[in-house]
């Protein structure tokens, strides 16, 4: 029975026709299109906030917020350089992550850059692509469709049509802070409906003025809105009725952040350079700088096949014969005395104090994941597996009481031959063949490793099947790409 993991080529899940800020976010494998730094969020910087010169509006807060959103719904032009900012903490580490969340609208033309999703629609066509450098911009795929506004340049784009492609929409929604709320303000007939819903429908619903602040030289109305357990804080330009920033509910942060053990401290959408009066025309060539150089035009984006297995998978190790730190256990390229051996890279030393602290934490987390993974194995598999840790001097000191077989590898020679970085592992069979390489701290890799171990113990040639499966998946991907291909737009 084949148990090792394989990725599906099936389409991503469909999105609802109208997005809201309360949309449940799907699980992400990665955080798309983001940067990070150890910095404080500008919204928490007292130096940027001063005593305001203007007074709060005289109308009720809910009415004022409705008026502001109505202006978005009625405007023919809007543009910002939006950025979502996430502050997270793990132990004593505080980190800020950022990602683009930009929207520009001029009549029936719209541009969206949300995380690594890019979308352009004008009176002639709609184009969408994924600006992910690690996958060569999603293999250069560009989805082509009809204009999001079907009735001439006097009409606005349709939200349903903009979110028509499931894969592009999923990428637009599943980043650090959910979907771009600017799209909802500009295109949804009833924006932020949850905030204005019936209070008797369940949960707290309040909209109230919190304060009047002068931030970044602009008098801003601060409105606090509560919908059930979600709390929003709008910073609105008093003079121009523009939303300058929104403090979003931390529950909207991408779920991968939670899985990685980080605790979300704050989530902010900062709408830099927001304006209803752009100074330049919205032109594709000037704004779409991330467009693929060799585009493959398609009617629908196709999920990429799994990456090719490492060239080390299926290869045999160079012979070696060493003793563990006790001098009592002999370790060779074939392992010790079991059918399978898992080699763990337990090296800690690095060139700088900061790198050493981060490397130590990563390796210790990987060691904890290894221990948890081992306990999940059944007795038959545990009896057929030996675990060996390749350590430098620092690693030997830290792992001395771990119960693992420790082999000194100060220069990292064995780790290099095995294709290992600190904290990663590989499975080697009794014929000295590498059958799997990965990181057990990653849930997907942990599941895959257990399947590979089980199949290998049953005599299945897992490396051969991995390479065959990859070739089959790649061919299926190419066939699907040919099937959905469309002529290049003119």
UniProtKB/TrEMBL annotation:
PROSITE patterns: PROKAR_LIPOPROTEIN. It comes from the Bacteria. This is Lipoprotein.
């Amino acid at each position: 029975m084949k148990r090792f993991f394989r990725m599906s080529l099936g389409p991503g899940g469909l999105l609802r026709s109208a997005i809201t800020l309360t949309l449940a976010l799907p699980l992400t494998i990665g955080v798309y299109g983001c940067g990070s730094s150890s910095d404080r969020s500008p919204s928490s910087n007292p130096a940027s906030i001063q005593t305001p010169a203007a007074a709060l509006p005289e109308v009720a807060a809910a009415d004022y917020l409705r008026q502001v959103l109505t202006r978005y719904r009625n405007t023919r032009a809007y543009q910002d350089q939006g950025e979502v900012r996430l502050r997270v903490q793990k132990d004593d580490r505080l980190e800020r992550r950022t990602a683009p969340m930009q929207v520009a609208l001029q009549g029936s033309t719209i541009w969206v850059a949300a995380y690594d999703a890019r979308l352009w629609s004008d009176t002639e066509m709609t184009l969408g692509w994924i600006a992910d450098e690690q996958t060569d911009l999603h293999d250069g795929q560009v989805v082509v469709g009809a204009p999001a506004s079907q009735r001439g340049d006097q009409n606005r784009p349709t939200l349903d049509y903009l979110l028509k492609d499931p894969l592009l929409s999923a990428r637009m929604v599943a980043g650090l802070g959910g979907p771009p709320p600017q799209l909802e303000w500009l295109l949804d007939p009833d924006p932020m409906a949850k905030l204005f819903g019936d209070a008797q429908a369940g949960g707290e619903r309040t909209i109230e003025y919190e304060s009047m602040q002068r931030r970044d030289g602009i008098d801003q109305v601060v409105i606090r809105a509560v919908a059930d357990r979600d709390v929003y804080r709008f910073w609105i330009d008093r003079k121009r009725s523009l939303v300058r920033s929104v403090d979003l509910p931390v529950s909207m942060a991408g779920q991968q952040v939670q899985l990685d053990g980080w605790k979300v401290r704050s989530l902010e959408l900062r709408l830099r350079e927001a304006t209803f009066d752009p100074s330049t025309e919205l032109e594709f060539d000037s704004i779409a700088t991330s467009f693929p150089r060799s585009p493959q035009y398609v009617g629908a984006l196709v999920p990429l096949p799994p990456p090719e297995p490492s060239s080390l998978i299926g290869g045999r190790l160079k012979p070696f014969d060493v003793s563990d730190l006790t001098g009592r256990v002999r370790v060779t390229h074939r392992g010790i005395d079991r059918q399978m051996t898992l080699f763990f890279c337990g090296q800690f030393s690095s060139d700088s104090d900061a790198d050493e602290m981060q490397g130590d934490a990563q390796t210790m987390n990987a060691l904890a994941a290894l221990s948890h993974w081992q306990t999940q194995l059944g007795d038959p598999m545990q009896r057929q597996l030996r675990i060996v840790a390749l350590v430098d001097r620092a690693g030997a000191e830290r792992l001395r009481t771990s119960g693992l077989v420790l082999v000194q590898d100060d220069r990292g020679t064995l780790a290099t031959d095995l294709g290992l970085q600190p904290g990663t592992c590989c499975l080697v069979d009794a014929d000295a063949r590498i059958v799997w390489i990965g990181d057990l701290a990653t849930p997907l890799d942990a599941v895959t490793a257990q399947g590979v171990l089980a199949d290998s113990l049953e005599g299945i040639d897992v490396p051969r099947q991995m390479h065959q499966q990859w070739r089959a998946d790649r061919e299926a991907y190419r066939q699907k790409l040919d099937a959905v291909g469309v002529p290049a737009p003119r």
